[in-house]
């Protein structure tokens, strides 16, 4: 965010507040799925109805699709989360981990620090625009327009594609690190 935006000159004094609320709403949405909620972790050990969905299934997701928190927890545990005899446990297939497939991201990515007009800067700006649009849509969803949730989900997919494209670009010639999303708010054109 530029100092001009912080002062409220770009988009009016309510823009920063609205975008902060949108970010808060986005985090709340993730938490509502059970992602990142410490108490959700304990739900795994509790009995569940044999025909019930996996713990903290995302709204309208496939029946076998777990919330973010559980997907990350599967990686940490090194095994898939499965239901056995009405209980959820990490006794499923092993999740292979290959260190060579882990992105070596540049630390503290900043779009503004990339050379203006470079392919890296343009890719980072595309990612920032996708991020900003997604936050704006989420803000509308939580501001009384729930019908725009599908649009926000599509924007999340676009953001993911933009981020993956960015993470295929070296952070500098010969560098061992790759670029990463800066998640900076894009200025209005």
Walkthrough of the structure:
The chain has 189 residues and is mainly alpha-helical. Residues 1-16, 34-53 and 56-61 have low confidence and may be disordered. A two-stranded antiparallel sheet has the order 1-2. It has helices at 3-6, 14-32, 38-42, 68-77, 119-141, 149-166; strands spanning 82-84, 87-89.
Comma- or semicolon-separated keywords:
disordered N terminus, 6 helices, two-stranded antiparallel ribbon, 189 residues, 2 strands, mainly alpha
How would a crystallographer describe the biggest sheet?
Answer: 2 strands, antiparallel
Approximately what portion of the residues adopt beta-strand conformation? under 5%
What's the order of the H and E elements? HHHHEEHH
- Uncertain segments are 1-16, 34-53, 56-61
| Number of helices, where a helix is a run of at least 4 consecutive DSSP H or I residues | 6
Helical fraction equals: 40-55%
Q: What do the pLDDT scores average to? A: 76
Distance between the termini: 15 Å
Spatially, the strands of the biggest sheet line up as: 1-2
Report the principal-axis shape: flat
Give the class from helix and strand content and strand pairing: mainly alpha
Radius of gyration: 20 Å
Number of strands: 2
Oligomer: single chain
